[in-house]
Specification:
Blueprint: E1 3-8, H1 18-22, E2 27-29, E3 35-37, H2 47-56, E4 62-67
Antiparallel strand pairs: 1-4, 2-3
The structure holds iron/sulfur cluster.
C-alpha cells in the first residue's frame, strides 16, 4: 500500500519550527529548533495537513515522499 513519509532537506531547513506546530504528532524540535521526524508513515487522515505543512515551510525544506507500491 502506498504511504507518505516526511523528508527534510537539511541543506535548506533553517529551523523555523513551523512544521512541528502544524504536525505535532510527527515532528518535534531539538534543542536548537530543528525538526526531529518520527519517521513513521503519515496516516491518510493527516496527509492533507502534512501537504499544507510542506507548502507552508518558509524555505520549502519539508517534503512528502511516497513509499510502498500502489495496490
Ligand atoms: S518549517 Fe521548514 S525550515 Fe522550519 S523547521 Fe520545519 S522544515 Fe525546517
Amino acid at each position: 500500500m502506498e504511504q507518505q513519509q516526511i523528508d527534510i532537506d537539511w541543506t535548506a531547513c533553517q529551523g523555523h519550527g513551523l512544521c512541528a506546530e502544524l504536525l505535532p504528532d510527527h515532528i518535534t524540535l531539538d534543542e536548537w529548533g530543528y525538526p526531529l521526524v518520527a519517521g513513521t508513515a503519515i496516516p491518510a487522515r493527516t496527509v492533507k495537513r502534512a501537504r499544507q505543512a510542506a507548502s507552508d515551510c518558509p524555505v520549502l525544506a519539508l517534503k512528502l515522499r511516497t513509499t510502498g507500491a500502489p495496490l
